[in-house]
Structure formats: C-alpha cells, structure tokens
From TrEMBL:
Protein name in the entry: ABC-2 type transport system ATP-binding protein
Superkingdom in the source lineage: Bacteria
Organism listed in the record: Brevibacterium siliguriense
UniProt keywords, alphabetically: ATP-binding, Nucleotide-binding
PROSITE patterns hit by this protein: ABC_TRANSPORTER_1 (PS00211), ABC_TRANSPORTER_2 (PS50893)
Length: 279
C-alpha cells in the first residue's frame, strides 16, 4: 500500500536566471496534516504549484498519489485552494459550487455537503461579490473539497479569518485527515504549527526543518512554535548554508537537541533533500 501522497526528488524550479527551488526532496505521508510554514517569499506557493502540476519545473520529479504531478487522472483526486479566492463574483455561492462540481465530475449532492462542512449553508444564495474575504476563501475551500479528493493542497486557507473561524477550519482539517485525506497546508502564522502532524519549514526556497510539533518544541526548548522557528532560522543563518541548497530534515537539523547525541547527523556542507488540485 502506498504510504506517500507526495514524493519529490531533485526538484529544481527557476524564474529566468534565478533558481527559486534547488534540488529539493520531499515526502508527504498519507492521511496526515502537513504544515508548510515560512515567511512570505520563501517558496511555499511555488512548491505547492509544483505538487499540483501547474508549475514549470526545470528538473527533478514530483509524484502525487503514485502518478506524475499534473497527470489527467489526478484531476478528481487532488483539490487545490489558491491563496486568492478563485470564484466567479457574478454567481451565487451555490452556483459557483455547482459549476465546479460539473467541471470536476462531482455529484450534485456534494454541493450541499461542502456548504455544510465549510459553514456556508446560510450564504448559498448570496452573490460571491458580496461576500467578505474570509467567506470567499471558504467558498474556494468548499470547491477544493468537492468529490472528496485524496489530497488537499491548501495555500494559506486561514488568511483573513478571525480566531474562531480559524479554529473551526482546523477542526475541519483534522476531521478530513481522520477520514483518510492528506492535507498539505501552507501558512506564515506559526501558531498554526501545533495543529499539524508534520511540519516543514521553508526559507529561501529550501526546507530547513522537517519535524513534528512535539519534536520542534522539545528540540529547541522554545515555549512557542514561533520562537522555535526563529531559533532554527538563526542556526541555519549561522551555518551559512548557500540559499536554496537542498533540504535539511528537522530530525537532522535539530539532532543535537532532539536526539540528545550532541552532534548533527547531517553534513550541512553537502546538498540535502528537499521537496516541494484539482487543477
């Protein structure tokens, strides 16, 4: 049985002459909530686009659910929520979802299901242009959930939401994972890290930590995820790793603290591994 929803090897992405992501390796386990965290401009969206299959890749490969990223047969198995709401403003919420359901081949009954799960039943007949930013984002999330995809790629889904709605969405994400879905969720809000099963911290196009919330805090001795990430970034900067040169697994980067063996198990001078829908 396949135990990885996403696998990237040697992923390199360039914009003009600039290398945005360099030789990145990535594994996303099935049925988990994987948080992709990091400051704006760190490469999170670019990596997610590569996973979905809409990003031009210079070299390397990305496998999604056992198939090359972007394969036609993944269309109904991968749900993708972009950072900006992707809905038609002149249609009602329900009409938007009916349209996307037809495009994706999802059953009509799915529209009411996703409206209910995203707490949008009361806005079903409301024109999209009259929605708040947070409501519009939830419509995009509902569209990504149509057809119950195996993998949800969500680019900053909680942006613009108040704390109560953010908490409700994370409860929804947990429910989806318990039902068997895999979620790759990006955020620059570090306190959301503790809601994930695994954490990937990106900086300058590289994954500099791959860990769990428990190991993140235990390994750094920090009181919060934000403090822990700042500590990791400071250590990464001190090591003067050339930007974009691969990924360092959190179990390696934090090995001095997490494993308690007093030394790193990864040669930071070398190139590590990194990684990085419905279309």
């Amino acid at each position: 049985m396949m135990n990885k929803s996403v696998e990237a090897r040697g992923l390199t992405i360039r914009r003009g002459r600039r290398t945005v992501i360099d030789s990145l390796d990535l594994d996303v386990p099935r049925g988990a909530i994987v948080g992709l965290l990091g400051p704006s401009g760190s490469g999170k969206t670019t990596l997610m686009r590569a996973v979905v299959g809409v990003q031009i890749v210079a070299s390397g490969r990305v496998q999604v659910l056992g198939r090359p990223a972007g394969s036609a047969d993944l269309r109904h198995r991968v749900g993708y929520m972009t950072q900006s709401a992707s809905i038609y403003e002149d249609l009602s919420v329900r009409a938007n979802l009916r349209y996307f359901a037809r495009v994706q081949g999802a059953p009509k009954a799915d529209v009411d299901r996703v409206l209910e799960r995203t707490d949008l039943i009361g806005q079903g007949d409301q024109l999209a242009r009259t929605l708040s930013g947070g409501q519009a984002n939830r419509v995009s999330l509902a569209a990504a959930m149509l057809g119950s995809p195996d993998l949800l790629v969500l680019d900053e889904p909680t942006v613009g939401l108040d704390p109560v709605l953010r908490n409700d969405l994370w409860d929804l994400f947990r429910g989806l994972a318990e039902e068997g879905a895999t979620l790759l969720v990006s955020s620059h809000v570090m306190d959301e890290a503790t809601r994930c099963d695994r954490l990937l911290l990106m900086r300058e196009g590289a994954i500099i930590a791959d860990t769990t919330p428990h190991d993140l805090l235990a390994g750094t001795g920090a009181a919060s995820a934000e403090e822990a990430f700042l500590d990791i970034i400071e250590k990464d900067t001190a090591d003067e790793r050339p930007a974009g040169h691969g990924r360092l697994s959190g179990t390696h980067l934090l090995s001095r603290d997490v494993n308690g063996n007093g030394r790193s198990s990864h040669d930071r001078r070398g190139r590590g591994t990194t990684k990085g829908g419905r279309r």
